[in-house]
Amino acid sequence: MGELLLIVLAAALVNNLVLVQFLGLCPAIGASRRLEGAVGMALATGLVLTTASGLSFLVERFLLQPFELQYLKLLAFIVVIGVSLQIWELLLRRLAPLLSRLLGVYVPLLASNCALLGVVLLNSGASRSFVAALFYAAGAALGFGLALALLAGLRDRLRHADVPLPFRGAAIVFVTAGILSLAFLGFAGFARL
Amino acid sequence: MTTRFELAPAPHARALVGVPLVMRRVLYALTPAAITYTWFFGWGLSINFGVAAVSALLSEGAVLRLRGRKTRVELNDGSALVTAALLSFGLPPLVPAWVPALGSVVAIVVAKQLFGGLGKNLFNPAMVGYVFLLVSFPVEMTQWIPPRMGDIDYMHLTFLGQLEYSFLGRLPNAIDIDTLTRATPLDIVKEGLRSAHSFAQLRGGSLFGDFGGRGWEWVANVIAVGGLYLLYTGTIRWQIPVALLAGLLVPATAFYVLDSDHYAAPGFHLFSGASMLGAFFIATDPVSAAASDRGRLIYGACIGLLTYAIRTWGGYPDGIAFSVLLMNAAVPLIDRYTRPRVYGQR
Description:
By secondary structure, chain A is mostly helical. Chain A is built from nine helices and no strands. In chain B, helix 2 runs antiparallel to helix 4 and helix 6 crosses helix 17 (320-337).
């Protein structure tokens, strides 16, 4: 149990997807305009990321490894991510229309989120067990949500700031994210993975 | 900014408090601490402050000139000097001059002016400069010298010797830098506890005083007195310092009571590193701190907790700078959820 908690902590803070590994920057910048959008994006990412991590573990262990097809890993994982996206979109639309309307925009957007493939490949590279992979994915999604929520709050403030003309827009958001990522280096050493 | 709005005819009582006065008070409050620091650690602080101040003022002036702003008004408000002072308090006394110069430029240009100048910066400028230096130049930033006290063996560097090292990078009589520098008490405790020494054992070392490191704890005391002056003059409010110190003390006491061998004493945490400076001078920056009283309590307590966590389990010996930046980032969210109730509203 303690080890799983450490995995979540490491994935969320020490190896934060956006601020430490620089993965998934497009959705982080794109969906952090407002807090509500950021939360929606983080929830959608959490659902799909955890499913995709579990499924890719199964695919790798029971399909790729027995037939020695590891060189197809990249392709297989991309397909798995696409499948888990589709599954969640269908499930949400049928079973939870309200939630689907809430997350509707964000789920298809995830198809172009490099953080998904990143986490799946990280899990496979570190040869984590099924449960550890699930927890790592959940932790990574948690950290993604945290980074998005912080950025959304900061961008709300930036709207009233008198930013020099060449730095308006995405530039100052990247400067802010850079300072935030400096701050996240303070978590270095909390848990080694 | 001393712009006056003399528009209304009615007799208004005008408070004389403006940004320049607040900044001047902060500098006054830091002066006794600076003298104590110089007494124990030599002239390094003055040299670093001089370099940092010149570089801060020059870079701020350059940005203001580029933006076509009134350089005179914004340069004279003293905020750049406060940033330079806080930055130089964080630096080791013996560093090459480019370290404070570069730190100031990052603090002023990146953390302050890019966001629109004083009052708009999301992060504490001095801490952005400090963390930038700490992450980028770990060797220069960890060369601490021991305090000058009776039985601690140390090499005495004169003012000229310090200047020579700062600007020319060489030490008089070809002394090696490693013979001058020593691990700080926070470093010793962190490494020692990791390699299975007990805290009581480590505390017997010659660098340790009543609570924190010798010399260091006196600087912390004087900083706290300066902080009380700021409280007395109403420059800062009590919520952030009290919450921050409590956030540091509560877990420190709890872990120390549970296992006094593997965790440092609460008094050590309180009087080591940047705890006092952080509580009274850094976290209380009115721009980047939370706005409501309840928000300030949350903000301060979280800085204390994070600092304890980073010192105890993290990779860096001190965590004030990182915790302040992390909580600066959380301030918009804290403010959003601690908005005071409008009078009459349910």
